[in-house]
Design brief:
Oligomer: single chain
Radius of gyration: 23 Å
Largest sheet: 7 strands, mixed
Organism: Kribbella soli
CATH class of the largest domain: Alpha Beta
Distance between the termini: 37 Å
Helix content: 25-40%
Keywords: Oxidoreductase
Pfam families: Fer2_4, Fer2_BFD, Pyr_redox_2
CATH architecture of the largest domain: 3-Layer(bba) Sandwich
Bound molecules: FE2/S2 (inorganic) cluster
Number of helices: 15
Number of strands: 31
CATH superfamily of the largest domain: FAD/NAD(P)-binding domain
Protein name: FAD-dependent oxidoreductase
GO molecular function: iron-sulfur cluster binding; oxidoreductase activity
Shape: globular
Length: 596
C-alpha cells in the first residue's frame, strides 16, 4: 500500500470541492469523487493490487497508466477486463477485484457490424495530443471537413494531460508546460467550424481509408461502434514508455514513468511516499517534478547514461544545445530545491518486496550499462518509476500497410516522405509515430501532415505556404537526433535480468524460457517465439514485451525487429460488435452524446 491522493489544501492547481460519488470496492463503500478513474479510487483508498495473474497468481495493479499494458484489469458492475487506468467512475459503480483475465463471452466475428450509416470525412485524425491537434487545426484551416477521434476524455494526449473537468481546478495551467500554446490550440480545435471532435473514442481497425471505431466509456459494455470513411487519414496515436526488465519489475509499486506522471498530473495521485525515478531521457525530469507536486519524496533520479554521454549528445548540434542548456538549468534548480540527487550512470537493477516494493537495488553502470561490481546499494522505497524511452503506437499504421522503418533512437517508426505521407496513399503520420522527438516536433509534423492531408483530400487545393512549418520539422528532427545521441539505450541492460526474471508480464514467461526456446528450437523471430513460448501472446499483445524479446533474440549488431502486427488495435469486446445491428455514423454518435 503506497499510493495516496494529494491533499487539496495547498495544491498549486487549486482543485475545487469535489462531488462525492458512491462506489464500492469488493462490496464495501469507499471514498471517491467525480472525475476519478477506477485506478485513482483504488490507489487513494490504499489498494495498489487488485488482480492476480492467470498462471501464477501474481499480484497486479497499475503499471503503464495509459491503457497499453492491461495489468490493471478490474471488474466494474459485473463486467470483467476493464482497464482501471482508463475508466472514469460513475455513481453506483461496483468495483470488484479480478483473477486472471476473463474469456470473451461470444466468438462472433467483428465483421457482423453492419456496414450502414457511414458518413465520410475529408480528413480523419486519430489522436488528440500535440500532433493530432495541430493536424486537425491545419486541415480545418485548409478547408477540409475534419473528424478527430481520441481515446482520451479531453484534448491533450499524454503530453498535455488534463485534470478532469469535475475537479474544477482554478489553476490547471500550473501543472502544464507551455500552457498558453496548448490552450490556444485546444480552443481552436473545439471551436473550429469544420472540426468534429469525438473524445472517448477508439479506432480499433483500419481497412484502406475506412476506420472502425467505438465510442463510450473506456472498456464499458455497449460502446457504440461505427465506421468512418475518409479521403485522408492522419495517424497521430502517440507512444508509451519502454521498460527494460530487471528482477522484481513486475512487483506492484513498480510503475512506468508515464504512469506516475499520468496519475500525478491527471488525478493528483502520488504513487508512493518514497519514490525512485530511473531510466534514461529528459522525460524523467518532469516526472520527478510532477511527483514532487503531489507531495512524494523523490529519493533519487537515476539517469543511466553518463553525464559525458548526455553532454556530448546535446552539444553535437549547435542549434539544439542552447535550448537544452536553459531547460537543464531550470530542472537543476528544481532538483536542488527539493534535494533530489541526480545521478548519471546509475540505474535500478532490482526491486524487492513480497506483495509490494519495499526496497530497490541501484548500481553504477559502465559505458555499456553493465552494473559495476561492488557499486550496488539498497535503498528503501515504496515506489519505483522507470522509463527507457518510448515505443510508438504503430498498430494502425502496420494494419494500413505503411512501411515501418527505424527512428533516430532505434525504435520502430513509420516511414514518411517530406509531406508526412506514408507509403500507403492517403495515410499520413505525425508525432511520435515517425520517431521520438518531443512535443515541438510532434506539433510541427502535425501541422504539416494536416495541411498535406487536406491537400490530398481536396484535390487541387493549394498546399503552399508550408515553408515555415517545414523549417520547424527540420529543426525538430535535429533535436530528435541529438536526443537519441544524448540518451542511447546500451545493450548492457540485458545483464540486469536473470533466468527467472519475467520478460512477458502477461503470460509470465521468463527470460530463461525465451532463451531456451530460442536455443532448442532455433527461433529467432518474435512471431515464432510468440507461438512457441507465449511471450507476446498475452492481453497487451506484446506491447510491453515484444521489443525486449526481439532484442534478446537479435544477433549482435542486428537491429531487433519486434512483432508489431495487431490487427485489433485496441481492446474491444466481441459481444459489442456482435450485438450491433447497425453501425452508427459519427454524426449519430454525436447526437446521442449531446442528448445524454
Ligand atoms: S507483456 Fe503483455 S503479452 Fe507480453
Amino acid at each position: 500500500m503506497s499510493g495516496y491522493l494529494r491533499p487539496r489544501s495547498g495544491d498549486p492547481a487549486e482543485i475545487g470541492t469535489p462531488t462525492a460519488v458512491d462506489v464500492t470496492v469488493d462490496g464495501r463503500p469507499v471514498a471517491a469523487h467525480a472525475g476519478q478513474t477506477v485506478a485513482a479510487v483504488l490507489l487513494a483508498n490504499g489498494r495498489d493490487t487488485w488482480r492476480t495473474t492467470r498462471v501464477h497468481d501474481r499480484p497486479r495493479g497499475i503499471f503503464c497508466g495509459i491503457g497499453a499494458c492491461q495489468d490493471c484489469l478490474v471488474t466494474v458492475n459485473g463486467l470483467p477486463d476493464v482497464r482501471a487506468c482508463q475508466r472514469t467512475i460513475t455513481p453506483g459503480d461496483a468495483i470488484t477485484t479480478q483473477t486472471g483475465a476473463a474469456l470473451p463471452t461470444t466468438s462472433s466475428p467483428a465483421a457482423t457490424v453492419a456496414e450502414q450509416g457511414r458518413r465520410g470525412f475529408e480528413v480523419v485524425v486519430v489522436g488528440a495530443g500535440p500532433a493530432g491537434v495541430a493536424a486537425a487545426v491545419a486541415a480545418g484551416d485548409a478547408g477540409a471537413e475534419v473528424l478527430v477521434v481520441d481515446n482520451g476524455r479531453a484534448v491533450g494526449g499524454q503530453y498535455n494531460r488534463q485534470l478532469p473537468a469535475e475537479f474544477a481546478a482554478r489553476r490547471p495551467d500550473r501543472l502544464q508546460h507551455e500552457w498558453k500554446v496548448f490552450a490556444e490550440q485546444r480552443d481552436r480545435l473545439v471551436s473550429h467550424p469544420r472540426i468534429t471532435y469525438l473524445p472517448d473514442t477508439s479506432v480499433w481497425a483500419i481497412e484502406g481509408l475506412r476506420l472502425w471505431a467505438q465510442t463510450g466509456p473506456a472498456d464499458a459494455s455497449g460502446r457504440q461502434p461505427f465506421a468512418i470513411d475518409a479521403q485522408s487519414v492522419v495517424l497521430a496515436a502517440g507512444a508509451y514508455d519502454r521498460v527494460l526488465p530487471f528482477p522484481g519489475w513486475d512487483l506492484p509499486g513498480v510503475y512506468t514513468a508515464g504512469a506516475a506522471q499520468a496519475l500525478a498530473k491527471g488525478q493528483r495521485i502520488a504513487v508512493g511516499h518514497r519514490v525512485l525515478v530511473a531510466g534514461t531521457g529528459p522525460f524523467l525530469l518532469p516526472v520527478a517534478e510532477s511527483l514532487v507536486g503531489v507531495g512524494a519524496h523523490v529519493v533519487a533520479l537515476l539517469e543511466a547514461n553518463s553525464l559525458t554521454t548526455v553532454r556530448k549528445g546535446w552539444s553535437s548540434d549547435p542549434l539544439v544545445a542552447p535550448s537544452k542548456l536553459r531547460e537543464a538549468f531550470g530542472y537543476g534548480a528544481l532538483l536542488a530545491r527539493h534535494r533530489i540527487p541526480l545521478r548519471h550512470g546509475w540505474t535500478v537493477i532490482a526491486a524487492h518486496g513480497t506483495d509490494h516494493v519495499e526496497a530497490a537495488t541501484i548500481a553504477r553502470l559502465d559505458s555499456d550499462w553493465r552494473p559495476i561490481r561492488g557499486s550496488e546499494r539498497r535503498v528503501d522505497v515504496d515506489a519505483v518509476c522507470v522509463g527507457f524511452g518510448f515505443t510508438a503506437n504503430l498498430e494502425l499504421a502496420v494494419s494500413a500497410g505503411c512501411t515501418i522503418t527505424t527512428g533516430p533512437d532505434g525504435s520502430p517508426a513509420v516511414a514518411v516522405d517530406a509531406d508526412q505521407q506514408t507509403s500507403t496513399p492517403g495515410v499520413f503520420a505525425a508525432g511520435e509515430l515517425t520517431g521520438i522527438g518531443g512535443a515541438a516536433l510532434s506539433a510541427a509534423e502535425g501541422t504539416l501532415a494536416g495541411t498535406t492531408a487536406a491537400h490530398h483530400a481536396l484535390a487541387g487545393s493549394d498546399a503552399a505556404g508550408t515553408a515555415s512549418v517545414r523549417g520547424a520539422v527540420e529543426r525538430g528532427r535535429r533535436f530528435a537526433a541529438a536526443l537519441a545521441r544524448a540518451y542511447p539505450v546500451r545493450d548492457g541492460w540485458k545483464s540486469w535480468s536473470t533466468a527467472d526474471t519475467l520478460v512477458c508480464r502477461c503470460e509470465e514467461v521468463t527470460r530463461g524460457q525465451v532463451e531456451a526456446a530460442a536455443q532448442e528450437r532455433g527461433l529467432n523471430d518474435g512471431r515464432a517465439m510468440k507461438l512457441s513460448s507465449r511471450a507476446g501472446l498475452g492481453m497487451c499483445q506484446g506491447r510491453v514485451c515484444s521489443r525486449t524479446v526481439a532484442a534478446l533474440l537479435a544477433a549482435p549488431g542486428d537491429v531487433p525487429e519486434p512483432s508489431m502486427k495487431r490487427p485489433i488495435a485496441v481492446p474491444v469486446r466481441l459481444r459489442d460488435l456482435a450485438d450491433a445491428e447497425v453501425a452508427e455514423s459519427p454524426e449519430t454518435v454525436l447526437d446521442t452524446m449531446e442528448e445524454q
